[in-house]
Amino acid sequence: MTPGLALAASIAAMSTALDQTKHTLTVAREASLESIERLTALLEEGQRLAPELTQLMDALDELASIAADDIERARVGAIEDVAATRASRRRRRDAA
Q1: What is the per-residue pLDDT across 40-57, written as a single tens digit (0 to 9) for each?
Q2: What is the largest CA-CA distance in the chain?
Q3: In angstroms, rounded to a whole number, what is the distance separating the alpha carbons of residues 1 and 35?
Q4: Per-residue pLDDT for 4 more than 80?
Q5: How far apart are alpha carbons 83 and 7 in whole angstroms?
Q6: What is the distance between the alpha carbons of residues 30 and 38, in angstroms, rounded to a whole number?
Q7: DSSP state of 92
Q8: CB count, 10 Å around CB of 76?
Q9: Three-state SS letters, 55-72
Q10: Do residues 1 and 9 touch, judged by C-beta distance below 8 A?
């Protein structure tokens, strides 16, 4: 191959590579813009839902507190029932 043809072939190859690179960058840029649009929409939705989620978390916290109180009352009641049953058995045994 003559030097002129080799140079022309190199320029053609570089031109093709440049075109492919430009195309790849265009596709990547479009994908980035789509991702940014999706993320922006998700962030906006998150900001819109934040107050409702905060209220829900507060309500769940209150319910958990009520449940904990109920469990504690039931625990104390069960302990008192066991103690009363034991005392009743002891009295019957002592009376016999």
Answers
A1: 999 999 999 999 999 999
A2: 125
A3: 48
A4: no
A5: 102
A6: 12
A7: H
A8: 10
A9: HHHHHHHHHHHHHHHHHH
A10: yes
